[in-house]
Amino acid sequence: MTKKKVFIISHSHWDREWYMPFEQHHMRLVTLIDNLLDLFKHDPDFDSFHLDGQMIALDDYLAVRPERKPELAAAITAGKLRIGPFYILQDDFLISPEANVRNMVIGRDEALAYGDEVKLGYFPDTFGNMGQTPQMMALADLDTAAFGRGVTPTGFNNQTGGADYASQYSEMWWQGPDGTRILGLLFANWYSNGNEIPTDPAQAKIYWDQKLADAEAYASTDNLLMMNGVDHEPVQADVTTAIKVANELYPDYEFVHSNFPDYLAALKNSLPTQLSTIKGELTSQETDGWYTLANTASSRVYLKQANTRNERLLDSIAEPLATMAYPAEQYPHDRFRYAWKLLLQNHPHDSICGCSVDEVHREMLTRFAKSTEVGRYLAQDALNTLAQRIDTTDFDTDAKPFVVVNTTGFVKSGQTEVTIEWDRRNFSPEMTIQAQRAELEAELAALPTLQLVDASGQAVPFRLVKQAVEFHYDLPKDRFRVAYQAIEITIAINVTGLPAYGWQTLALQAAKESVTPIEGPTRRAFSEHEFSNEWLKVTVASDGSLTITNRETGHIYHQMLVFEDTGDMGNEYIYRQTADNQAILSTDFPTEVRLVHDDALGVEVELINQLAIPVSADEQLLAEQQAVVDITHRTAKRSTVTRPLTITTRMRLGRHSRQLQFKTSFDNQMRDHRVRVLFQTNLAATTNTSDVIFETVTRANEPAANWQNPTNPQHQQAFVNLHDAQNGVTIGNIGLNEYEILPKHGTIAVTLLRSVGEMGDWGYFPTPEAQCLGAFSCEYSLALHDGTTEQRLVSYQQARNFQVPFSVQPTDWHAGELAADDAYLQLRTLEFAVTSFKRANNSAGATLRGYNLTKQPVTLDVSCCQTPATAVNFLEQPLPDVASDQLGPAEIKTLLFAKK
């Protein structure tokens, strides 16, 4: 009789920081690896230890124990310590597509530097799994993924399978939206199902009777997986003794201390022909809805905002600029990797999700700041270099030229500002600083009438924002710093139709009669709480909500931009409305409207809402928190004491823009509550679409029948959309990762802030800083479209572009090899959403990566650098069977442009 084989894999799921600050976890990690290196020497039966799939643990260990690196490397080479394939264990949904890719690439590179990686996509505790995981794993040369959440295991009650989110076994096929299929392993009994194995025979008998039955309830083969470890678990030093005891107790089983490569090989050789196929993203759709942990998307919103800006700075500004500015040999690969690693250190699930103690998230802000400053330096240096390559001799020699660059993969329009140096005085011993300033102020007072022109000499509208004498300094690369004072003129301009990776050169100069005059608007666009352009008409209603008309179709939307405040007695993981179940709406309070600008650039209007909000929850909440009462059983209500909450929203509608942009600001001094902005669409739609990881995913507006949570929160990256056959609404955002569809009126609700006072999970961990007291600003956008796919896709691309500002660089009069107005590449496929344009890691070429926004095949029309394109995977290895000019449904494509 063939024995069943029990594979026992020692591991420790190492949350780098969570319920303790990083350094507390760090010191325990050092002890763990010290003990492992000693155990490897003294127990020849100890097969190996799985280091949680994340390479950062080695960096952290060696920061304290650099002298043990040779010993560590030897253990890895001998297969005793199993490493990779990722750099960190990330949260899937809250980091960008490119951050997910860089996590895999950096992790693999660092693993291969030691010898090899464990070829297993490892997601033991991610809070839901992205639908494109199968395709992403395949593009990283991985064919299996292991995960702990998102699928409902049904054991032998469902022999046929077939449900998208349920499997009769712990092994299943996982299929992505493009059709890619990989093997999925669910930790059906969690990744601690073989933890702390007894060595006492009597205890071991009780232990194994239960553990074997649990595993066999879901296993599809006679190869059973037992994970010997759990969160921050020290290694079980006597595990090999415990295995010997188990083998003596159970003659029908073979217990082995093992590793993932051996287990996967045995499993794949014995899989049954009938396995369930699960499809797309796995977010516990078919559960009661309480523990999906999707509300981590709104915990500590300030982290999500900082993360989004940091990511866009690296993947959508600095890297494209450096690719456009430098030859391949000068591209700063090492500095970019340093910046990415700093950023990735904030991407573990307990970190970016905002569900740790306060000390953890304070340290995250420092990492964001460090990575951001590196990104700013790299972007500015590249922008300076690019501007010097652009010919500005079409302008007068005394003009002040500057370059505007679109670093996104889609045509971009919008408003930007530039500060131009009109004249300067370097600090010198010949003249006092005060005398220099007086001279410049006199010149400033006598400035001529100014005019902005393009390279053909045509006048361009602008708005004067500021002019003043300011102190600055230069840091030349070949000499000491240069301090100076200068007349600086800041102007705002509209940029229209700047192509992907394109630039336009403009210049500020003294006005000339020969320049073609600006044609101003035929009438003012703002009148009596109403403003418009050729695409939109916006009316501020008497209750402070917006009525917005799509002037192209005539369709009218009411009750847009309504602010909602509710009590929250949940925690950093889960929103739970207080028992009073009361929503406070801005439409029930006074509203003030103020015109800010109405000129050739467009209209800006300020809307001020005055709400009265309870100061906190009542005293019952603290008692329930301290008693560790589960949120589903809490009864707290809101305080009867209220304070004013002033919400100020700046609305901007460009002269020729389809996109209405919002910046909402408020000073939060209330606790235990949530603030959302609501857009009521009244569209007859049963599904919504959202921008997630390499996919525009379609989700049902109504949850499954067994869903009990009164709310249905969802993740987004850049936008959410509702549409029917004739009309649609796309709401974009910058770092606002949580939305919900309220089906009754087709309302899109975007969370702006959630204030809670505890971490949650397995105990009471107070987190007063998660109340997010202080000043907040949130940026988001609205675009209306008709029923055509083209307009809908344009709104998607524009929402993605909303996260990326123009790059603007003043320069001087000089000759250059690049035209004043041009583009680095030509991209003519609307459906292709670009996520990265950078120099190749391992060649002199450039790589362009993106994905199909649709589920339809299209032709990919792109050209760059007069070089042919080759399809490659995430590791930049050629894919000879993949056409470079075709884009399949939901396909992720990386093109390498390299001269042969």
Automatic annotation (TrEMBL):
Membrane-spanning segments: none
InterPro entries in the cross-refs: Gal_mutarotase_sf_dom, GH38_beta-1, GH38_C, Glyco_hydro/deAcase_b/a-brl, Glyco_hydro_38_C, Glyco_hydro_38_cen, Glyco_hydro_38_cen_sf, Glyco_hydro_38_N
Keywords: Glycosidase, Hydrolase, Metal-binding
Source superkingdom: Bacteria
Residue ranges constituting the Glycoside hydrolase family 38 central domain according to the UniProt record: 296-368
Coiled coil: none
SUPFAM superfamilies associated with the record: Families 57/38 glycoside transferase middle domain, Galactose mutarotase-like, Glycoside hydrolase/deacetylase
Record family assignment: Belongs to the glycosyl hydrolase 38 family.
PANTHER family cross-referenced by the UniProt entry: ALPHA-MANNOSIDASE 2C1, MANNOSYLGLYCERATE HYDROLASE
Listed name of the protein: Alpha-mannosidase
Organism, as annotated: Lactiplantibacillus songbeiensis
